[in-house]
Specification:
6 helices; globular; two-stranded antiparallel ribbon; four-stranded mixed β-sheet; Rossmann fold; 169 residues
Length: 169
């Protein structure tokens, strides 16, 4: 929700989509937090209303893509169309931002090879196995390597969005 709100406030048109869903459908979100446990905690978030149809996504019509974190990427990476969209963005060197577990979509699309990336620490081994270089950064930071902008968790929204806007020109 934060990237949608921030980019919309800046005048960008932002489409929020989900496979097998259409504009007007709602998706559940989760809030992950760091409360001193060995990993994050998860609480129910807001129901979020989609504003575009996944079936209508044409990568050439977009300047950039933002991939969500949380548990969604674990499932989204199983959708061949999601992977194809990411590969099309990568092939055209368009900015791709991924937060937290969103890196799982990039590793599944085989676009991290040779790139420095970050993510939630538990997903770091996937970056390495996919041929990327995992870089550990503070939870409120982001890194960019070419068209890929990655960050470890929601506290990095400002840093991730700043690097995304820079990549978008």
């Amino acid at each position: 929700m934060v990237p949608y709100q921030a980019l919309t406030m800046l005048g960008h048109t932002v489409h929020v989509v989900c496979p097998n869903k259409k504009a007007g459908d709602q998706i559940a979100t989760a809030i992950h937090d760091f409360e001193g446990h060995q990993t994050y905690t998860e609480k129910p978030g807001h129901n979020y209303t989609l504003n575009a149809n996944f079936s209508d996504v044409v990568p050439d019509a977009y300047d950039a893509i933002i991939l969500p974190g949380g548990r969604a990427p674990e499932y989204l990476r199983l959708n061949p169309r999601v992977i194809e969209i990411i590969k099309q963005f990568a092939a055209k060197n368009k900015p791709i931002a991924a937060i937290c577990h969103g890196i799982q979509l990039l590793t599944a699309a085989d676009v991290v090879r040779g790139k420095k990336c970050t993510s939630y620490c538990a997903v770091g081994p996937e970056i390495t196995l996919a041929g990327g270089k995992y870089v550990e950064v503070p939870v409120d930071q982001a890194i960019a390597d070419g068209n890929l902008i990655t960050s470890p968790a929601w506290p990095s929204h400002p840093a991730l969005l700043a690097k995304l806007l820079q990549a978008m020109g």
